[in-house]
Specification:
Chain lengths: 439, 195
């Protein structure tokens, strides 16, 4: 980012204010809709963090690809002929045209439609038209001009990419959060699969509002989704909805809310075969926690979130567990593109997978009843955050500020009670600030 | 359904984005009177949606009705642009009823204040099915605006309905609605309306 002096001053003012406000459990309103923050996030956060790219099940066969966005770059995520998954900038090295135009498909190679340079699905440049006539012998080395590769790594089927060569490994980056991610990603020996391509839409919402909400905002549920309680949807009630835990990982930014309903039967809403498969692969500590979780809602810093929730397609029917995974991608100031998947246990029966997906479409996705209410609220927050009067205002993040964490919880991380708290969010903002303060 | 002077408008192989068995033909077994009745029914249905008379709208669906919208995906060349399994809506009459009950509650925040919608239905192509039901393919354009905003959403869709005849005043019930929105990256914060 080229900075003029006034921009530099504005960045200093904003970061200084964020630091002093956060010390008192507050977060400045203006960060939720600011061109300075947007540019700073692009440079200092999204260029450095591990960002989600694709689920391995989206690429089952050699040649399968999906087109994704990584920190504003169009990238191809592709399984090559040897079965390895790679990620490449979607740009012909000759004059910069996009070599892939579809959002998914299968291809042995990508041929540029401008001058015809052709790349294998492992990124190698394999075809340069008229190479012997237009270049001197030895002048054009195809090996110098392959598609630009992006560093990738994966955990439990999730492929991530990172643009910072000096960033720690994905394992370090996740930093113990895998213990909780396993609830979503390892419901059996074969993990999960994406049931269908992601729902995609663009909304006038700042991505951070969503990432925060999914880091464990049990507080909004009884109000924002009040219809769910009114229609008898939930294995919970407004009075018990605060029960449970919130877990975060300091300086990593990850956080998860674990809502529980007193008296709920263990593994409520899971098919029996999935419970047996979970018992096969998860540790005793994991099982002892997950057994009694009704809602698990978490964010992998910065912008990937997951939710597991029992949901009845018709109120009064026994609940079905569905899992949604979503990527909140900033595409402009106060604007984001949403990618939302439904993950199903690979070891579940087809019937159970279908039932979970139906529940997902009713609740989430652009036409999902829960999703609708969330985005309506979030876009209004975003609009207000750019209002001139907000420049001096902050939001309170005081819940749990002076409360001591649990010391006898069987899982890692800093664990707070109850489920309704704001400790996860303070950690999210603290980590966000640490990235933005690093030049 | 006569086939004598059938004029095929497309090759025998249906376009991959079409419902199976929906290859267009001018020989459809539908006379002008029936065509008009189908049009009037779909106009009435649109009116109920635009006037937010959702319970009456729901009563136009048969008890075994399905309401389904595949996801669009951007794929190359002749590959189908419809997701095989992905759905924007995957509803039955029972789940549509839940959506309607929600809209009638005080807590459907995405519709508070309500969307202003206008459904435009055109290019009706009806044909008689073997069991006496009527398959109707139509183009649908839906305008949606909210609150004091000047921007709006326009959803264009390819809609396939199956109507069964009844003795009631509406004359038909919808037993199947299947539609595809002509967008793979959707606009609008949420899709809190029916198409």
């Amino acid at each position: 980012m080229t900075s003029t002096l006034s921009q530099t001053n504005e960045i200093g003012r904003l970061l200084g204010k964020a630091r002093s406000e956060m010390a008192d459990g507050r977060v400045p309103v203006e960060i939720f809709n600011s061109d300075v923050v947007f540019a700073l996030e692009q440079e200092r956060l999204f260029q450095r963090a591990w960002l989600f790219l694709a689920h391995e099940s989206e690429l089952p066969d050699p040649g399968d690809y999906v087109l994704r966005s990584l920190a504003g770059n169009s990238v191809i995520v592709c399984r090559d002929e040897s079965g390895r998954i790679g990620c490449f900038l979607n740009m012909c090295r000759h004059r910069g045209n996009q070599v892939c135009k579809a959002s998914e498909g299968n291809a042995s190679h990508f041929r540029c439609s401008y001058h015809g340079w052709t790349y294998a699905n492992d990124g190698r440049l394999i075809g340069v038209p008229h190479i012997r006539k237009v270049y001197e012998p030895g002048q054009m080395q195809r090996s110098d001009w392959g598609l630009l590769p992006v560093r990738t790594d994966s955990y439990a089927g999730l492929v991530f990419g990172c643009l910072d060569p000096d960033a720690p490994s994905l394992e370090d980056y996740l930093g113990g959060f895998q213990f909780y991610l396993d609830l979503y990603l390892r419901p059996g020996p074969n993990g999960t699969e994406a049931y269908a391509p992601p729902d995609r839409w663009e909304a006038g919402t700042d991505w951070k509002i969503c990432a925060e909400n999914f880091a464990g905002d049990g507080y909004h549920t009884p109000v924002a989704h009040q219809f769910g309680f009114e229609l008898g949807y939930y294995a919970s009630s407004a009075t018990t909805h605060a029960d449970g835990y919130a877990v975060h990982f300091p300086h990593k930014g990850h956080g998860i809310g674990l809502g529980r309903t007193p008296g709920m039967s263990p593994f409520f809403g899971y098919p029996t075969e999935v419970v047996e498969a979970m018992e096969e692969v998860l540790s005793e500590e994991q099982l002892s926690i997950f057994r009694e979780v009704r809602t698990a809602v978490g964010t992998v810093f910065p912008n990937l979130s997951l939710l597991i929730q029992p949901f009845s397609t018709v109120p009064g029917e026994p609940g079905v567990r569905f899992c949604t995974m979503r990527l909140w991608q900033p595409v402009g100031v106060g604007r984001m593109q949403m990618l939302s998947w439904c993950l199903v246990p690979a070891d579940a029966s087809q019937e159970d997978k279908d039932a979970a997906y139906r529940a997902y479409t009713l609740a989430f996705g652009q036409a999902g009843m829960f999703e609708q209410d969330d985005f309506d609220n979030w876009s209004r927050v975003t609009r207000m955050a750019s209002s001139p009067l907000c420049r001096d205002l902050s939001f309170p993040y005081l819940m749990g500020l002076t409360r001591a964490p649990l010391d006898d919880f069987p899982g890692p991380g800093v664990v707070m009670q109850p489920y309704m708290t704001e400790t996860n969010f303070r950690n999210l903002w603290q980590t966000w600030l640490e990235y933005l303060e690093r030049p | 359904m006569t086939t004598d002077h059938a004029i095929a408008l497309a090759d025998a192989g249906a376009h991959p984005d079409q419902l199976p068995g929906s290859a267009p033909s001018l020989s459809d077994g539908i006379d002008a009177e029936l065509q008009r009745a189908v049009e009037r029914f779909l106009y009435l249905e649109s009116e109920l949606l635009d006037d937010r008379r959702f319970e009456e709208w729901l009563s136009l669906f048969s008890e075994d009705a399905t309401y389904e919208a595949p996801l669009r995906v951007t794929r190359d060349r002749q590959a189908s642009q419809l997701s095989e399994r992905g759905r924007l809506f995957s509803d039955t009459k029972a789940t549509l009823e839940v959506r309607v009950r929600r809209l009638l509650s005080e807590y459907a925040w995405a519709e508070q204040p309500p969307s202003r919608t206008r459904h435009f239905v055109s290019n009706l192509r009806a044909r008689l099915l073997d069991d006496g039901a009527i398959a109707v393919r139509s183009n649908v354009l839906v305008y949606r605006n909210r609150a004091e905003r000047t921007d709006f959403e326009l959803y264009s869709a390819d809609r396939h309905d199956e109507l069964v005849m009844t003795s009631g005043t509406a004359r038909f019930r919808i037993r199947r609605r299947w539609f595809v929105v002509d967008q793979s990256n959707m606009s609008g914060d949420s899709l809190s309306i029916f198409l």
